[in-house]
Structure formats: structure tokens, C-alpha cells
Write a structure and sequence with these properties.
Order of helices and strands: HHHHHHEEHHHEEE
Structural class: alpha+beta
Radius of gyration: 19 Å
Distance between the termini: 12 Å
Number of helices: 9
Shape: globular
Helix content: 40-55%
Number of domains: 2
Oligomer: single chain
Largest sheet: 5 strands, antiparallel
Strand content: 5-15%
Strand order of the largest sheet: 2-1-5-4-3
Number of strands: 5
């Protein structure tokens, strides 16, 4: 267990948008998410959400939101686009998920995990209530990005689209922002080299070059460093996406679980 609750900090003079900062707990939540989900199912406090359900989508959004808050020590507005779930269903679901996380953390860390997640769950539910009211006032949401990009925004794994010639990140999803401790928009136009862990930089370069030169999709293990310098070991898949204008390396990454 790598929850270092003693390092958690509240920002001095915490404003309403401030939150507890605990990068170790954020990384632990990302790495152990599968075990937490299994514990949620075994506890039977709520019905286990089906993978394609709006409840499962809400849990994915909350997990990314919680990790982002804990990594950055800030409480930004959660990503709620397209999420339609009433508070009577969401509150018990998030409560049960937080309890499952406490169970996985064990007696020694239960209090720290509960203290970190409870206010974030309450904030997420309150934001959704406000979003639903705003949506009713302004009518049906306008169709924006293509459906495939909207789906990428909702997945729990980190997604990065990288220009192999410059190393520039040209697109990312909220989960990538949560993993690296930044808002998604703050990743755009950053060079991926800023997040590479030194021992793995050559491996990243070699794999990206090989795939974008026409090779088969690659799977490998390497690390990234988040905005605070924390090293995160990852399972990575890179595929090539080519158009007439340019070629991109599409990266999907998830924290290693073993």
C-alpha cells in the first residue's frame, strides 16, 4: 500500500475551490480501481452497474474527477457533459463506491481515504444537480464534438494523441489530465517529453517512431511523471493514425496493477 496520508496537504487559506492534495492517494485510486469495483460488487450495497450504463459512466467520471482533485489540490468543475443521472441514484452509488475504496485501503488507511473522498463525492453530486437544472433551463444540449471523441473523453484510461515529429500533444482526454495532474486543456500543445521519466524516454521515442513509420500497434510498459514529479508506471498501447495532412501516435495508458 502506497497511501502516504501524512503527506496530504490542505492549501493555505483554502478557498471554496481548494481541495486536499494527496498525489499518492490519487495514484493508488487509479491503480486499484478494478479491485475497488470488485469490492463494490461483492458488498451488495447497490446494484452493480453494467459496463454500458449511465451509472458506470458516472463512476468513471467521478474516479477521474477525484484523482484530478487529489493530484492538484484543487476542486475544478467535474466533466458532466451528456451525463444524465438523478441525485437519488447517484448519491448512494458514490457513497457505496467510496466505502468500497475504504475497504480495499484497509483499517490503517480507512479514515484517510474516507476523509479525502467524502467531500469530493458531495461536490460531484452537487455539480450534477446544478448541471441538470441548467440543462432544463436551456433545453437540449447542442451537438458538439464527434461522437467518437466524446466517447474517448469518457473512458477511464488516459488517451493522448501525439505528433511524432514534434512530440506535441494535440489531443487528450480528461483521464489523461487526471493522471498527469493537469486539466485536459492544459495538456494540449505541451511536449510529451515534459512528462517522460528519464529511464523510459528512449523506449517511448523508439516505440512511437516504430509505430508511426508504419509498424504494427505496440504494447509496452514504461512510465510518465505527473506535473508534480510523481513517477507513474503504466501499461501502454500505441497505434498509428494517418490522414492526408499528418500522422499521429495514439496512446492509451493505464496504471500498472501488478
Amino acid at each position: 500500500m502506497e497511501i502516504r496520508s501524512k503527506t496530504a496537504q490542505e492549501k493555505p487559506g483554502a478557498a471554496p475551490g481548494a481541495a486536499r492534495r494527496d498525489p499518492a492517494l490519487a495514484t493508488w485510486l487509479l491503480r486499484r480501481r478494478r479491485e475497488v469495483d470488485q469490492t463494490l460488487a461483492s458488498q451488495g450495497r447497490v446494484e452493480t452497474p453494467k459496463a454500458s450504463s449511465v451509472e458506470a459512466e458516472a463512476l468513471r467520471r467521478f474516479r477521474s474527477f477525484a484523482a484530478s482533485c487529489l493530484l492538484r489540490g484543487e476542486r475544478p468543475a467535474p466533466s458532466l457533459d451528456g451525463l444524465k443521472l438523478d441525485d437519488e441514484r447517484l448519491t448512494p452509488l458514490l457513497g457505496a463506491w467510496c466505502e468500497a475504496a475504504c475497504t480495499v485501503a484497509g483499517p490503517e488507511h480507512r479514515e484517510a481515504v474516507q476523509a479525502a473522498l467524502t467531500p469530493l463525492a458531495a461536490h460531484f453530486c452537487a455539480a450534477l444537480r446544478g448541471s441538470q437544472g441548467s440543462r432544463r433551463r436551456r433545453g437540449a444540449p447542442r451537438a458538439g464534438r464527434r461522437a467518437v471523441m466524446a466517447a474517448i473523453d469518457r473512458i477511464a484510461d488516459a488517451f493522448l494523441a501525439i505528433d511524432p515529429d514534434t512530440g506535441r500533444i494535440v489531443d487528450a482526454n480528461p483521464a489523461a489530465g487526471a493522471l498527469l495532474g493537469l486539466q485536459r486543456d492544459a495538456l494540449i500543445d505541451r511536449n510529451v517529453a515534459a512528462f517522460l521519466a528519464d529511464p523510459d524516454a528512449e523506449e517511448w521515442a523508439a516505440q512511437i517512431d516504430a509505430v508511426t513509420e508504419g509498424g504494427e500497434p505496440a504494447r509496452f510498459r514504461a512510465s510518465l511523471r505527473d506535473d508534480g514529479g510523481l513517477r507513474i508506471p503504466l501499461d501502454i498501447q500505441i497505434t498509428r493514425h494517418a490522414t492526408r495532412q499528418r500522422t499521429l501516435a495514439l496512446v492509451v495508458a493505464r496504471p500498472q496493477t501488478d
